Amino acid sequence: MRSRKNFNETVKLNDAQKKQLAAEIKAFYLDVRGEEIGMIEEQQIIDLFCEHLAPVVYNRALDDAMCWMKEQMGNVETDYYLLYKDVR
């Protein structure tokens, strides 16, 4: 059985994901705020989001998955009862 993720642990991104997010953050600041930010600021924003926002999004995804799973189980239960034969 897999252990639950430590909720104090931040989300880990690979180098390609970090590079893509950094580019998007840099573009956002330039487009929306008219500011250029450096690599340190980009990394600080990524770290902040990974630590504080990612767990919220992760938990929401789990809640959505649970709702979907319950719906699917309801479908399975309905299909199960359709297997019964009429007894007269």
Descriptive overview:
The protein is mainly α and 88 residues long. The chain has one domain (15-82). 72% of the residues lie in helices and 0% in strands.
Fraction of residues in helix: over 70%
Structural class: mainly alpha
Main sheet specs = none
Residues in β-strands, percent: under 5%
- Tally of DSSP helical segments: 2
* Rg, alpha carbons: 22 Å
Q: What kind of oligomer do you see?
A: single chain
Number of strands: 0
What is the H-and-E element order?
Answer: HH
Given as residue ranges, the uncertain stretches (5+ residues, pLDDT < 50) are none
Count of the separate structural domains: 1
The termini sit apart by 47 Å
Q: What best-fitting shape do the alpha-carbon axes yield?
A: rod-shaped
Would you summarize the structure shown here?
With 88 residues, this protein is mainly α. The protein has helices at 15-33, 39-82.
Give the key terms.
0% strand; 88 residues; single chain; mainly alpha; 2 helices
In terms of topology, how is this protein built?
Blueprint: H1 15-33, H2 39-82
